[in-house]
Amino acid sequence: MASLAAAQVQEVRSITRIERIGAHSHIRGLGLDDALEPRAVSQGMVGQKMARKAAGVILQMIREGKIAGRAVLLAGQPGTGKTAIAMGLAQALGPDTPFTSMAGSEIYSLEMSKTEALTQAIRKSIGIRIKEESEIIEGEVVEVVVERAAGGGGARTGRLTLKTTDMETNYDMGTKMIDSLLKEKVQAGDVITIDKATGKINKLGRSFARARDYDATGQQARFVQCPEGELQKRKEVVHTVTLHEVDVINSRTHGFLALFSGDTGEIKSEIREQINSKVAEWREEGKAEMIPGVLFIDEAHMLDIECFSFLNRALESESAPVVIMATNRGITRIRGTNYKSPHGIPLDLLDRMIIVPTAPYSAQELKEILNIRCEEEDCQMSNDALTVLTRVATETSLRYAIQLITTASLVAKRRKATEVSMEDVKKVYSLFLDEHRSEQFLKEYQDEFMFSDVSGSGDGPQLMEVSQ
Ligand SMILES: Nc1ncnc2c1ncn2[C@@H]1O[C@H](COP(=O)(O)OP(=O)(O)O)[C@@H](O)[C@H]1O
Ligand SMILES: [Mg+2]
Q: What range(s) does the AAA+ ATPase domain occupy (predicted)?
């Protein structure tokens, strides 16, 4: 019995697991409680409590939507969960708040200027909720009568009788209306809506009163209640789009299909100005609402001085999103200049930012993260194997240890074991080098490699930055 249940669970899992597993796919939120206090392990998140709490405050700020153009910098060593926290924030915000994620280096594309790339990213991070009120007629069809007018000539007249539980009305129909009724195969007993402005007909289903005609209507029929009250109603329709989508749809040179191909090119500034004033008008009339979202720029030290100064200015605009940047650099050269600055970000921009530091994990936290990753990759691992792997993570890096989960699980599968053992982990540890051992290896055999640039003195790795 128990094994049967287990088999079923397995099956359900394999069906829901069609999605691919990515570096951050185990992250499902920030793991905070209602008071924004971080739970120890929740929603795939472990430790890094201060930074998660800070992200929770930022989350609240974004949700309230009042503050535009704030910038946040996540700063810390590689593998301390900066990207993970940004992804958690995106999940916590939900699908209705725009969240754009890009790497600093993405702006160096040949197709558009750096400022255009940044402008598009900013406008992708601002949503507008457009409310449209339309008048509709909603009722159950009592009768449809279509007659050819005497004298022929193809002219037709038609009459439609609709009812609700409270009233019944006759409508005269024009040719266009008759055509669309015939096209939709509307017949007595259908519950329909007609948009008064466009004449669009929508079939909601069959009235329950007609349920006994079931055989005649076929199996697909959906039964609904006969509507109540007035036949004429006002209905509110809400669309949420980003400013960038509005730009693309309105830029004649590209057309909205460009949204799907991703090839939107540069958008003229006149178009953006027109759209800005249109949106402002809608907001004034109460037709549209702005939803400020988040622009996340990972590896922000890859931006150059022009981008930083552009961002400085863009943050001041009323329609600016909250900008979150992440970097793992210390004091380094600002791209495009010969000046050095903390995180490679100019001081005037740093001055506007609130900085959230991330710190290295404790062994216990590393173990917990590795455990979550094992679950995410559907990998059974014995307890001592996990202990060894945690040891590897403390001595090398968390990312390297995460890589070993996948490889060790494959090795275990080769020997038809269901569980990864300590030996499997040791084996892949010797098969695949981490950064430190790889460097040792290079030093040992430097003469046999091409273009070796390491000075023999052994004074640590040399990172050469190519000057522009
Ligand atoms: N607090 C955490 N909880 C769960 N997983 C984490 C946490 N911090 C990092 N990770 C995972 O560890 C890996 C490396 O972290 P990442 O966010 O890419 O580091 P960074 O961006 O700071 O260099 C990723 O797979 C990430 O999802
Ligand atoms: Mg990262």
A: 68-360
